[in-house]
Fold these 2 entries.
Entry 1:
Amino acid sequence: MSTATASNSPYASNNSASGRCGVTLMNNQVGVVVAEVMRKQEGVTITPLPSMIRVDADNRMDFVYADISEALGEEDDWFDSAQFEENMSTHYGKMIHEDDRTIMFASPEDAAEYLGWDLPIRN
């Protein structure tokens, strides 16, 4: 009786932490401007696709509403969490909405202070 071995598939399951977080934006006028604002942040990668725009980052990224509103030619308070949610279709990582920004974290532990979590110290 022979024993089959699994091949090294590029689609194999991997449950290790990626250290990345990201969102998928609609590829419309607002989504394009949001992506251009985010492109200026260190560690952020923008991937335009036909119907969406991927915005991915190492560890953390901040979508600062005033910066996005300014780039859109709007008042400082025009872009907010509702506008963000309207233009985003999916995300991965921990998302925190603040009054002035949306923050994406790769690690939920890094978001603990924003959520009021009292996490034990890891060794």
Note: The domain at 20-115 is CATH 3.90.56.10 (Phenol Hydroxylase P2 Protein).
Entry 2:
Amino acid sequence: MKFRFCGLIVMLISGGLTGGLFANEPEADAPPNFIVIFCDNLGYGDIEPFGSQVHRTPHLNRMAKEGRRFTHFCVTAGVCTPSRSSIMTGCYSQRVGMHLNPRDGQVLRPVSPYGLHPAEQTIAEVLQAQGYATAIVGKWHLGDQPRFLPTRQGFDTFFGIPYSDDMTREVGQRLGDRYAGHDWPELPLMKDETIIEAPADRDQLTRRCTQQAVAFIESHQQEPFFLCFPQCMPGSTRAPFASSQFKGQSRNGPWGDAIEELDWSTGQILDKLVELKLDRRTLVIWTSDNGAPMAPDMASPTRGTNQPLFGRGYTTAEGAFRVPTVMWWPGHIPAQTTCEELATTMDLLPTFARLAGGDTAKLGPVDGHDIRPLVLGTDNAKSPYPSFCYYDQDQLQAIRSGPWKLFLPLETFSKHPHFRRGQPAEPLLFNVVEDVGSTTNVAAQHPAIVARLTKLADAWRRDLGDRGRPGAGQRPAGYLGENVTPAPLVKDMALSPELP
């Protein structure tokens, strides 16, 4: 039984979801294909369509020229596991229990007893039930034990790694007892539920995953498909990996090499869709799971940049939550346009469900919204969000409504301060539309706005919890149980001799 309820102040899927088709929407008997490409830790300013001067991204330039940029597209966490749970479920990670656990913290580690609860309804399951072929290629990071793998969560097939590429046996040995590091296996490359290489060749991950993605498109061109392509790069390491064709070729060291290979990968996908005459039948969304960590010197692009936004990844600053996003669907999405309205990764599930012609009333409520008007460029389309939350683990740190973002006064700070170190315990209010870099605190000039957003924050706390106090709308993560010892994936397991 899948969960069908989401809590106190969730907006029900209604109205636009059950209304008539939009002008550019495909015919009801021709459901579109969906491809979601989301990179790992790639920053807002890391690609040319969003201002990069050091990375060459011609294929993303083409995608933006032929499609639509989203400049206020947000994830729901500044770090990967909780962010990915929201893409999968259409809900805040706090709602589905994927924001924090006693063993791993906010990011799942290898050999974890936790994962996305099997009872949660995923975007893959929604589309699979509507006749779609489904595949995930790349990084999963929502549980590495068999019951939590993507093949148990609505995906027909999986090719990639079960968690971050930097979670290697070597790192685990250095951690020791922390996060059960002694039990970490070699980084496994998997096909469905079988390990085909260990340790995985990290230099080849982007190339191999791209080959698998293209092969899936080719083999399913006669039926509707959903391809989830969570790229493994640029990742969390200080020196990301790239194949020999790209290594040492960028102007920004390993980080730039990885990004330019990601751009090549995108070109392979777009070119294959055009070659197979699937481009007008396929919505492609390109984004990132959270902002870049950035170098100690934030002016340096060597570990990515979120400029002109303020803040690093792993925080609740705009640089962590707002990610570069381009949508491409020739003949349906207006070319060379920009959407400046707030939208989020939680919107993909209800939007895809509606575009696929499903009965969205059966979904139950989710935190995301149907954003077809924003995607298709409907005149005067507005953000469907009355408010949007910025959580760090179990602490609500900021809230946005319209152009206003309020950083709430905090009695205690998490590991990553939500705005900047030494911040006074007083509200900070920014107009994040006009003040792109969050430079001017205008809380004193707008006490009524501060009061209104504070009241909204209190309602969210009651629903999603805050600092150890559970909320009425929260559900548990998947958990193997106190008496079950999770098994390392690679230990005592024969490897497949066939490598892609």
Note: The first helix runs from residue 58 to 66.
